[in-house]
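Lab notebook, design round three. We kept the backbone fixed and only want residue identities now. Task for the bench partner: fill in a sequence for the structure below.
Input structure tokens:
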């Protein structure tokens, strides 16, 4: 009888794929075909290589439905003629498979169907190395037909089978190139720090680099109605493939957004491939397709095999036997002996930071951190009248005689170096008259500029910048008779130093590891699991400073257990927001007042110090922390500074004389800043040769000390400049840690004196008493405080929506458990997915960056497929890397917010014993941090204020005791040039309960309101750049210093 005739499925694919364990009869294909046969309605016919390659198509088996797809060596045209002859139902049509070999055609087809792709341009060459007039390559961008791509950009060969894809990084992030390739063992990419030029031997697609937060999404369709998606660690971060104990790459099933499901449907239709894999980039809340692979199956997912078999069965029956019911049987025929997959428990336990109840879950970790150990910050100022330098200024300021110029890119700095090399006199003249002394001084400063520019092997502009400001002009008559202005004198200011040291990189990485193991209770290495399963929503922000950006990248390396260089990590994971994390402009008047008052207090001795503090709250007094004998310590400071400077002068003089005779670099190669970017250990050869640590030569070391000596005390006016105290302390601390091998006499003693003074001066620069500290702190940290409140509020809204959804799902599942088991489920597999991502747009925040409608895409793990016990559990981490000013400011607002008139009578957020500890904490050193962790107590009602609790902790950062002690631990740390980081300390009493409601009430008066955060502004040539998967607010206002015309509103 006709009804019993089985539908035949022809499998016309190459066998060789079986042997290398990939698609075809590999596990997925076999699993799915076995399931199809288990239905009893199909017969599967395997063609085999011999038939496919040798037999004419007329002799090929006849079938109702055909599975055929290209792999290398496959005769696609032959399969097409078979399909024309026999007309079977094709799962994947054959003719469009030709498109998949050419990336140009793939993008063209995607665009034709309105599927978003990254911004791109084509460079087509007829012959290798053909010069093209429409293609321009500059240091930090390429331009194709006038379409400019700033680094980082991606370069892909046009041939789909060539997997050598390259990413080029900007010089401001350290430069270099990363090559992505098909997985080889444990690697999927390689970083080449010295490659800066693009390839020219073939045709390429250039496209914008999409920062995806370090995760890629692979989507697998089975027909237009079904798509399964998996996330894996992106090869662009460190190129190390994450594998599970069985050696398979770790991937996690994730939910697609409604928009992405529509894209999957359109990819299927555009390429007429029912079974189709493609790659999705999620960036700034939008998704883009960057590659279409054709036939692919998911590996190692029984749930997916079931779904795929059900969807294919429905497809085959509708095509060849529509009269048969395609309803799915109540129990799938192969379900009987399915192996049980092991599950992984996420245990919960208290951490050393403070225990919490059994019903409490961590929801949010917010940390604000200072950068790691750095070299002293330096500045050279000189007036220049040389024609070469004035012309250089005009060249880069658009020829405007009164406009100032900033030189930061490698090309600009090279120009300046070429000019100064010509201007620096060959020999040093002796000093005769006053005017000659001035010339000598000028020549010395030019020599210093030259030395700074030559430092480091090549320019990675992240650490040096030069400003040229015109001071005097003359009118000159042009040949046309018109008059024009020309500058004749300008002020040159060179800022350098402040570079993150090897120790700073090490500190930041170690601290990242500490956070990974201690800040996420019960997770252990589970933080990595949370992250890659999209249950960890991580964003990292940094200020504009190179040392801060690199600290953030090194911390991310430790936190997420990454390997390799910092440049790719920086570009993939760190967003820059200088308006939130840089600058003191809006508090400069108050800070000047504080410094003036500080000067008075020091000069008048200790009389005024304790005028308004009580013995119970000594921190309420003016100028607290200053040593009572400050005025006596100053002359001592000057004397010791002179002593150290003289010794360094001698070393520089000796070096200079040696330089004249031989080149010391014959033995020691020059210090290469780019290669040092990823290093966390000292340069042993330099130390052994008796040279200063890092990239500083003796000339620059002497310039650093000589400037301090001059600025600290003006002998003619007999005046001390107390603002120099922090810089003297900074230099001492640096040389004690990094240059102890130079045995500078008196440096230890100078350190002790400078420390006593700096411990009083630095905290008081941010306000002379608590009320002024609160005023200055709220001005400097206003935007950051606003952002922290938004983070906490978003987390609360999200937690509430998950809780509401969960309770409604529980009710639904109780009532419909039996009747709806498997009804019509394959085509509508993601029925609940849309609800799961109800984002915090339900809250009253009109302009929360995180949720500008489609921008806030809360990516989620797909609970149906994941081997995870608490799939809805979601942790938000926000890390803010900044400098000393913002750490002091934030701490001052947290501890003194209750002194504001509007909050009279409220207790401080910080308990009395912590206030006392902070009063005794002299310094918030490198890598000091403040952490807010928010916990949700799921045992109390949603509306109960006790539902959300905030825990505040802080660390003073680097522990200076090894510099003060002489024990064995101190000497081993000394050898490493690295100081350990102090552990976190509580800011609340044990057992106290700070609710989110109270926290918001206390901080709101000082925070920028959510609605004041500006909408995103995107500089030209920078569409969709840098801000991770969500956020208006978190759309960085002035993105990155990579390119010449970055606008910066908010500096």
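Proposed sequence:
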């Amino acid at each position: 009888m006709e009804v019993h005739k089985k539908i035949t499925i022809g499998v016309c694919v190459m066998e060789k794929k079986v042997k290398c364990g990939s698609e075809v009869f590999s596990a997925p294909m076999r699993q799915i075909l076995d399931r199809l046969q288990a239905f009893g309605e199909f017969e599967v016919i395997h063609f085999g290589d011999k038939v496919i390659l040798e037999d004419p198509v007329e002799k090929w088996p006849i079938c109702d439905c055909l599975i055929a797809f290209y792999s290398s060596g496959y005769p696609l045209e032959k399969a097409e003629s078979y399909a024309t002859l026999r007309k079977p139902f094709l799962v994947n049509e054959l003719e469009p498979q030709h498109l998949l070999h050419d990336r140009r055609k793939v993008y063209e087809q995607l665009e034709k169907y309105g599927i978003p792709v990254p911004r791109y341009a084509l460079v087509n060459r007829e012959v290798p190395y053909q010069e093209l007039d429409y293609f321009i390559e500059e240091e930090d961008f390429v331009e194709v037909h006038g379409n400019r791509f700033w680094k980082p950009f991606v370069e892909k060969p046009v041939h789909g089978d060539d997997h050598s894809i390259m990413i080029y990084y900007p010089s401001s992030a350290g430069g270099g190139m990363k090559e992505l390739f098909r997985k080889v063992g444990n690697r999927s990419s390689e970083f080449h720090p010295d490659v800066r030029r693009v390839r020219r031997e073939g045709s390429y697609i250039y496209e914008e680099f999409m920062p995806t937060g370090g995760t890629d999404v692979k989507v697998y369709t089975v027909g237009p109605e079904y798509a399964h998606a998996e996330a894996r660690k992106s090869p662009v971060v460190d190129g190390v493939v994450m594998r599970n104990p069985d050696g398979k790459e770790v991937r996690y099933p994730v939910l697609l957004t409604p928009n992405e499901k529509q894209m999957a449907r359109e990819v299927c239709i555009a390429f007429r491939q029912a079974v189709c894999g493609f790659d999705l980039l999620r960036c700034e809340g939008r998704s883009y397709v960057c590659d279409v692979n054709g036939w692919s199956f998911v590996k190692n997912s029984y749930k997916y095999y079931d779904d795929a078999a059900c969807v294919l069965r429905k497809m085959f029956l509708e095509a060849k036997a529509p009269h048969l019911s395609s309803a799915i049987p109540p129990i799938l025929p192969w379900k009987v002996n399915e192996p049980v997959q092991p599950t992984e428990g996420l245990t919960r336990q208290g951490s050393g930071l403070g225990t919490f109840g059994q019903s409490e879950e961590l929801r949010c970790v917010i940390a604000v951190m200072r950068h790691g150990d750095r070299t002293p910050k330096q500045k050279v100022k000189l007036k220049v009248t040389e024609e070469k330098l004035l012309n250089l200024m005009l060249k880069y300021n658009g020829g405007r005689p009164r406009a100032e110029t900033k030189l930061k890119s490698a090309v600009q700095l090279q120009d300046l170096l070429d000019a100064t090399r010509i201007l620096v006199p060959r020999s040093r003249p002796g000093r005769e008259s006053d005017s000659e002394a001035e010339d000598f001084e000028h020549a010395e400063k030019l020599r210093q500029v030259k030395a700074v520019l030559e430092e480091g092997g090549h320019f990675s502009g992240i650490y040096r910048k030069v400003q040229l400001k015109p001071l005097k002009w003359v009118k000159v008559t042009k040949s046309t008779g018109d008059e024009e202005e020309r500058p004749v004198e300008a002020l040159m200011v060179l800022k350098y130093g402040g570079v993150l040291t090897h120790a700073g990189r090490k500190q930041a990485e170690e601290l990242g590891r500490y956070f990974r193991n201690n800040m996420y209770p019960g997770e252990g290495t589970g933080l990595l699991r949370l992250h890659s399963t999209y249950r960890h929503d991580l964003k990292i922000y940094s200020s504009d400073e190179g040392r801060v950006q690199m600290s953030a990248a090194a911390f991310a390396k430790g936190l997420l257990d990454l390997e390799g260089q910092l440049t790719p990590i920086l570009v993939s994971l760190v967003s820059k927001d200088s308006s939130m994390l840089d600058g003191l402009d809006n508090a400069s008047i108050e800070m000047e007042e504080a410094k003036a008052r500080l000067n008075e207090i020091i000069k008048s001795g200790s009389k005024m110090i304790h005028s308004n503090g009580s013995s119970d709250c000594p921190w309420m007094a003016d100028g607290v922390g200053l040593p009572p004998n400050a005025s006596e310590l100053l002359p001592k400071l000057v004397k010791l500074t002179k002593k150290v400077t003289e010794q360094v002068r001698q070393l520089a003089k000796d070096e200079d004389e040696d330089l004249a005779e031989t080149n010391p670099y014959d033995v020691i190669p020059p210090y290469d800043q780019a290669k040092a970017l990823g290093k966390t250990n000292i340069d042993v050869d330099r130390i052994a040769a008796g040279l200063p640590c890092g990239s500083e030569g003796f000339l620059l070391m002497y310039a650093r000390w000589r400037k301090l000596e001059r600025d600290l005390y003006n002998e003619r006016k007999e005046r001390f400049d107390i603002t120099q105290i922090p810089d003297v302390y900074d230099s001492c601390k640096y040389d004690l840690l990094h240059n102890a091998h130079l045995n500078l006499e008196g440096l230890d003693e100078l350190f002790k004196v400078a420390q006593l003074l700096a411990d009083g001066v630095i905290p008081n620069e941010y306000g002379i008493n608590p009320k002024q500290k609160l005023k200055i702190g709220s001005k400097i940290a206003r935007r950051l405080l606003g952002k922290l409140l938004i983070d906490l509020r978003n987390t609360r809204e999200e937690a509430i929506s998950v809780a509401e959804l969960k309770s409604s799902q529980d009710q639904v599942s109780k009532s419909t458990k039996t009747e709806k088991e498997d009804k019509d489920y394959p085509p509508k597999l993601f029925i609940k997915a849309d609800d799961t991502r109800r984002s915090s747009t339900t809250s009253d925040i009109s302009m929360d960056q995180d949720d500008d409608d489609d921008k806030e895409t809360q990516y989620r793990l797909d609970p149906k497929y994941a081997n995870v016990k608490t799939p809805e559990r979601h942790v938000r981490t926000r890390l803010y890397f900044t400098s000393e000013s913002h750490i002091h400011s934030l701490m001052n607002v947290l501890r003194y917010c209750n002194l504001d008139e509007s909050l009279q009578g409220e207790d401080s957020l910080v308990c009395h014993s912590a206030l006392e500890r902070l009063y005794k904490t002299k310094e918030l050193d490198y890598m000091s941090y403040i952490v807010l962790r928010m916990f949700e107590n799921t045992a109390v009602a949603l509306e109960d204020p006790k539902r959300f609790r905030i825990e505040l902790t802080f660390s003073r950062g680097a522990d200076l005791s090894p510099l003060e002690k002489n024990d064995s631990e101190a000497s081993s740390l000394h050898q490493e040039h690295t100081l350990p980081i102090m552990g976190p300390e509580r800011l609340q009493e044990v057992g106290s309960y700070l609710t989110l409601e109270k926290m918001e009430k206390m901080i709101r008066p000082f925070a920028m309101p959510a609605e004041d955060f500006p909408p995103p502004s995107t500089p030209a040539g920078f569409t969709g750049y840098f801000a991770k998967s969500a956020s208006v607010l978190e759309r960085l206002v002035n993105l990155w210093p990579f390119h010449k015309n970055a606008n910066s509103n908010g500096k």
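Keep this in mind before ordering anything: The chain has 30 helices and 32 strands.
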